[in-house]
Amino acid sequence: MTAAKASTTATDGVTRRQTNGVSKQSATTFQRFDAHDPATTSSAVVDAINHAGGAIVTNLVSADIASQIKADLAPSFATSHTDASQFFPSTTQRATALFNHPSYIRLATNPLWISIANALVSSTYTYFRENGRTETVTEKPIVSSTVGFRVLPGGKQQVLHRDDNDYHPHPSILPVMIGCVAALTKTTAANGATVAIPGSHLWPSDRFPRNEEAIPAELNPGDAFIFLGNLYHGGGANVTKDEYRETVGVFMCKPTLRPAENQFLSVPLETVKGMSAQAQRLLGYGVARPGVGFVRYKDPMREVLGVDDGEVVEL
């Protein structure tokens, strides 16, 4: 994680780190930035994220782009299936494989977002070469998942969780993920805005998150909540009678969290279909719990290969 710069108390009620590390008061909220403001630099947002675990960037993309993404995802929401694992409440509809939509790519490749993600989740490593010479390499994060969410009226709050859990990371390398959740509709505390606990990215693994500690990230269309993968968060409850909220997320992970040899491109799918289930799983077609390797929120072993060998993960 990029080290946070020393600073004093900031605006919007965010208590920032003090100089010389003398005082490191806990964050109580998430700082808000306007992407249209020249003072909103990636380094300023990174500093705020390092302190609180997340930050809100208004106007990250235009309302027009948000509206186009909303229209593009409508068919997927209409055919969304219920989450068998119950990680997502039954009142949450989902859309996946979003790089199929050019409108979404404009969000996923937004320069400010990419600069923030690169600063926080790139991977740098130094290793020996011949004659004791060392080489240091830095690689940028890659997409872990692309997901749209529609929370219907009456929707229950999602369990508070850390996205990093998917990768079983050692605490010393946290975070391994970063998320950007942008609003397609106005999102409020009442209609299910994402809730998160400021500062919880700094908690030890044995500290339990409580719902009363979480606050909503309220957004207008085009605004985004950007947060680290080890920040406790969840989809909020929709207590309205006639509103639904839609958001869309791009989640990035460290670039080394993948096979060295790309098996999905090296071996044709038709060849894979003729293999044993054991061989298929060795190539990475099975899901690693709690949720790495899904396609359309289903296990590829069943969804793509038609295999049900007793190890299929229900998502």
TrEMBL record:
Coiled coil: none annotated. The keyword Oxidoreductase applies. SUPFAM superfamilies: Clavaminate synthase-like. Gene3D superfamilies: q2cbj1_9rhob like domain (2.60.120.620). It holds the Pfam family PhyH. Residues 1-26 are annotated as: Disordered. Its cofactor is Fe cation. The keyword Transport does not apply. GO terms for molecular function: dioxygenase activity; metal ion binding. Keywords: Dioxygenase, Iron, Metal-binding, Oxidoreductase. Homodimer. Belongs to the PhyH family. This is Uncharacterized protein. It comes from Cyphellophora attinorum.
